[in-house]
Design the sequence.
């Protein structure tokens, strides 16, 4: 795999633009998957994954081919996704008062989402529910949990992707696991 | 409930596969007599299993073509490099 990737990257660097399509084919599902799990919907996932490949193409000269391409493209993809999520932050707070109301907050208007009623869970698509729970995690923990449990990467690889010491990656995974446990334990 | 905090670290170490055989024995012995910690481990394992059950998704069919259609201008010589490189 790495030998093929090295060959393709060399071809692209030598000016064969079309060779890049081979690289996209090899990594598109992994990159799209990370993007999808990070942002939580297909439309934005496509944007994020596409942007990640375009950035990789533009910066290919700075890629050290002694390293794993997957680590590099995952790093780009998670960064693009995190940027996107930062920009998307809601511009209102749930604790804000609803306009023209007294003592009514947006929060009080929402159905309790801490523990959904059982029948609702049963009807809800399981997949949708898992994704929803992942999206409830703070971004730091979400990224680590996705790379660990959905992409099935080693702590060393995750530490390379996120450019964080392994001990920090572990802490994020521990906290992510605890947050998920608290939300999922009643099922 | 009292011991949960002190064992929490060991539980996560165990889930990371980082425990020594001695630590694992200590944890196992504790889990045999502490329903709280045992419950904690089970809940964590359940949460992990839920996340792992998330099915693998594939990129849309037209994905590669879309990326290729959006590639920036091809560099011709190294002189023009700085123009398109951001």
Sequence:
């Amino acid at each position: 795999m790495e030998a093929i990737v090295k060959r393709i990257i060399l071809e692209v660097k030598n000016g064969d633009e079309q060779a890049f399509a081979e690289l996209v084919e090899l990594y598109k599902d992994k990159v799209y998957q990370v993007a999808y799990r990070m942002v939580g919907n297909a439309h934005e996932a496509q944007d994020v994954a596409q942007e990640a490949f375009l950035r990789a193409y533009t910066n290919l000269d700075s890629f050290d081919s002694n390293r794993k391409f997957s680590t590099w493209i995952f790093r780009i993809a998670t960064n693009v996704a995190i940027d996107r999520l930062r920009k998307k932050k809601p511009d209102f707070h749930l604790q804000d008062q609803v306009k023209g109301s007294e003592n009514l907050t947006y929060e009080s208007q929402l159905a309790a989402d801490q523990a959904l009623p059982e029948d609702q869970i049963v009807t809800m698509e399981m997949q949708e529910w898992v994704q929803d729970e992942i999206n409830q995690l703070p971004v730091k923990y979400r990224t680590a949990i996705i790379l660990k449990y959905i992409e099935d990467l080693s702590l060393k690889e995750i530490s390379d992707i996120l450019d964080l010491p392994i001990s920090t990656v572990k802490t994020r995974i521990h906290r992510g696991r605890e947050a998920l446990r608290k939300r999922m334990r009643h099922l | 409930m009292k011991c949960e905090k002190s064992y929490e670290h060991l539980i996560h170490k165990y889930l990371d596969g980082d425990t020594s055989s001695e630590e694992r024995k200590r944890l196992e012995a504790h889990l045999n007599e502490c329903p709280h910690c045992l419950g904690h481990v089970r809940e964590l394992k359940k949460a992990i299993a839920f996340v792992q059950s998330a099915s693998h998704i594939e990129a849309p069919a037209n994905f590669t073509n879309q990326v290729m259609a959006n590639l920036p201008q091809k560099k011709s010589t190294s002189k023009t490099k700085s123009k398109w490189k951001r």
Summary: Chain B touches chain A at residues 8, 12, 15-16, 40, 43-44, 46-48, 50-60, 63-64, 66-68, 70-72, 74-76, 84-86 (CB under 8 Å). Residues 4-52 of chain B form one domain. The radius of gyration of chain B is 25 Å.
